[in-house]
Amino acid sequence: MAARGRSDRRVEPSFEGSRASDDFRLDAEDRIVGTGGPARRPSKAERDDERAGRQERPERAERPRPSRKKAPRRGGGGGFFGPLRSLVYWGIVLCIWGGIGVGGLVLYYGAQMPAASTWTIPDRPPNMKITAIDGSVIANRGSTGGEALALEEMSPYLPQAVIAIEDRRFYSHFGVDPFGLARALINNLTGQPIQGGSTITQQLAKNLFLSPERTFERKIQEVLLSFWLEHKFTKDQILAMYLNRVFFGSNAYGVEAASRRYFNKSARDVNLGEAAMLAGLLKAPSRLSPARDPEAAEARAQVVLGAMQEEGYITESDLKTAMSQTPAKAKSYWSGAQHYAADMVVDEVKSLIGEPKVDVIVETTVDLRLEEAAEKALNDVLKKEGGKLNASQAALVSVDATGAIRAVVGGRDYAESQFNRAARAKRQPGSAFKPFVYAAALEAGDRPDSVRNDAPVKIGNWSPENYDQKYRGPVTLASAFAQSLNTIAAQLVMEVGPENVVSLAHRLGIESDIQANASIALGTSEVSLVELTSAYASFMNGGYKATPHIVRRIADTDGKVLYEADYTNPPRVLSEPVAATMNSMMNRVIDEGTGRAARLDAWQAAGKSGTTQSFRDALFVGYTSIMTTGIWFGNDDGTYMKKVTGGGLPARAWKEYMTAAMKGYTPTPLFGTGRALELPPPQAQPESAPTTIGDIISGILPGAARRAEEELPPDYPPPPRPLAQDSASVDQDPYGDRRASGGGRNYGGVVPPADVPVRDYREYRGPYDSRAPVPPADVGGGPIPPGEVGVTGSTRQPRQTTLFDILMGQ
After folding, report:
1. Residues of 44-72 as b/e, b for ≥16 C-beta within 10 angstroms?
2. What distance in Å separates the CA atoms of residue 573 and residue 503, rounded to the nearest whole number?
3. Whole-angstrom distance, CA of residue 116 vs CA of residue 235
């Protein structure tokens, strides 16, 4: 039993032989039951045997279990690389979560935007390109201030300079430049010069679609729009859109507007230094504008040149050449008299076709050569004599026989004042209005040799006086007109009737309201210089309406004609005899009257001076067979000048301008010179009654009778001889080529050559003129004068002054 008992004792395994006391053993409760099935519960006999065996085993002193150290991880975790690995690990984690966050924001803000299928490039604001008669550009008008150019049309330096300074990797990135953004972030964090990191594509997206506010939402939208632009357009198209829309300061949008604004030339023609200056403006257009700070603009341009050299666009030699050039100088505002014309064009275009919806090209009647001559003439006189005579402003308008405006100057300096004094200002014309009075008198039956008495006149409470306050007694109308006698003009107005004078003035082109009273004889009703000058052109062209206009043709950039005008078939407003007689009378004004300072060499000219009360305004309007020009001198505030008359400063400026304007033309006589255009014979005079004391007294009072028998002054030319052909042929062919057959009269010291034909005035054209296409039916129309215009079949009898008139003071 003992042997069995011993044999039944459980023997624990020993791992180290003699070191049995240190063996490692497990009790039943320490055993781990396998998962293959449920654990078998030991039987009662087995449990009893186990308890018996424990009692028989001697107690062992318990020994502490050896501590087990944690095995180090493979590869080691300490040392220098441990923190670095942790940093990289957490950096990657943060990037992942940051990317998820940014992606969520992109999706959120992208969902706020319209669907990409609806995105379109907004139309560029329409530009109005205004050209002269030779096709050269006068100006651009519109919100942008310049036309859009294709990339191939620009100077090659422009895109190179912009890419070099704004976006060097423009042709390699996909709309957003990660390197640029990283560089901008590092610079901003380290205190380096702040950089935006935006690409050209991003800047274009911002300018086209977004507001200038700086928010995270706008930046996200800018990036999305940049991706869309890169997908939709080529790099060259994106660059062209950017260069044509970006702001360059001084109200100039696009390279063409900026180039003309600062350098007065097209973007096609800018040189390297100018291109660098324009590119430099993009950083701060207002602060770096050469019109505001030329030194800062030049310094920035040199930075751009350095960037261009680094990128290989230019060589070191090009860089030195550009830096040695004199910096471009820009005025503080648009300058040049041609801008007065451009402003007139804008107003006329809007009245013809409304507000343009697309880019348009407007062909005008302006000759830039004449514009320069006109501006020079006015400024020469103002600089020389304006200061001492208290004349600060001047204006000029020059038209041809059809009313086409060849030159217009609205003031002394457009940069200082853009108000057009030639077209918008209305001033009293003074004696320059008298041609309409005398023309009305001729239509009523008077003749140049009709006699009136230059004596004190009283019309109601008004007593007009001559400029020199002298009276000459009996004078012919021709002599009175040449000497600009106010008393005679006042008498004629009352004889003809103020309403008839006003009607004739309106017929010839005066559109302003004119009060029908006796004072219109001295030009008291206000008119503009443009309408007054164009009305004079009716005398020049032989009696036809000369409607002032400055626009010839309007077309879009595809060549579609939107409007075209033709004024070469105007209505007749004066008979040929009246026009010819007025030419003769106004020729005397220049030859021997108040306009002697306007005499031209080799050219026959006619005109009339005008001076308003207290020398507030001084005018001279005159013409040759080619052109009519009106000039005004005065002050904007209406202050007095120092005895400046129309025969003074205006006449001298007129001579200087017309001398330059007539270069290139062959001198031709005024209309009616050498032609037998007779006025109707004077009305038969009743036999004179015996001279009485009343006749003697009436000789010094208003209303003196005509003295048909009085001898004409010796300086008045003889009447022209009649033509061999009958008058019917004249009416049928008012413009036929006829040679002078009037006996070689001498007008103004100019004897017309025998071989000079009297031509249709429409044949007098400048070197760049061409006939315009047929206009709409209503163009060139106007009120046609009644059939009796110019006919002098008046039955009025000359009125004799009576003793009753003397007693009544009339």
Report:
1. eeeeebeeeeeeeeeeeeeeeeeeeeeee
2. 11
3. 20
Residue 329 pLDDT class (50, 70, 90 cuts): confident
Residue 675 has pLDDT above 60, yes or no: no
Query: 């002032």: which residue's tokens?
Result: 548
- Phi, psi (rounded to 5 degrees) for 380: -60, -45
Backbone torsion region of residue 473, taken as left when φ is above 0, otherwise alpha when ψ lies between -120 and 50, otherwise beta: left
> H or E element: which one contains 231?
helix 216-232
Residue 440 to residue 442: CA distance in whole angstroms:
5
The tokens of 370 are what?
A: 């004449």
Per-residue pLDDT averaged across 548-570, rounded? 93
- Largest Cα span, the chain: 202
| Closest of 288, 269, 277, 286 to residue 162, by C-alpha | 277
Q: Up-side HSE of residue 127: CA atoms within 13 Å toward CB?
A: 21
Using alpha carbons, select from 441, 579, 435 the residue that is nearest to residue 510. Answer: 435
- The two tokens of residue 346 are 């804008």
pLDDT band at 54 (very low <50, low <70, confident <90, very high): low
pLDDT of residue 445: 92
Q: Which helix (H) or strand (E) holds 351?
A: helix 338-353
Q: Where residue 488 falls among pLDDT bands split at 50, 70, 90?
A: very high
> Could you read off the pLDDT of 645-663 as tens digits, one per residue?
999 999 999 999 999 999 9
Cβ neighbourhood burial of 651 (10 Å; 0-12, 13-18, 19+) = buried
Cα–Cα–Cα angle for 490, 495, 500, rounded to 5 degrees:
95
Matching residue, tokens 């400026």: 653
Could you read off the pLDDT of 270-313 as tens digits, one per residue?
999 999 999 999 999 988 888 888 889 999 999 999 999 999 99
pLDDT at site 326: 76
pTM for the complete prediction? 0.68
Bridge partners, residue 89, by sequence:
none
Q: Are 184 and 195 in contact (CB under 8 A)?
A: yes
- Return the residue matching tokens 């009716």: 538
Q: Which residue reads 């009136």 in tokens?
A: 452
Cα gap 603→581, rounded to integer Å? 18
Cα–Cα distance measured from residue 254 to residue 158, given in angstroms and rounded to the nearest whole number: 11
Note whether 200 and 169 are within 8 A (CB).
no
Per-residue pLDDT at 55 exceeds 60:
no
What's the whole-number mean pLDDT along residues 536-562? 96
Chain-centroid distance of CA 168 in Å reads 35
Count helices and strands (H / E) in the chain: 24, 14
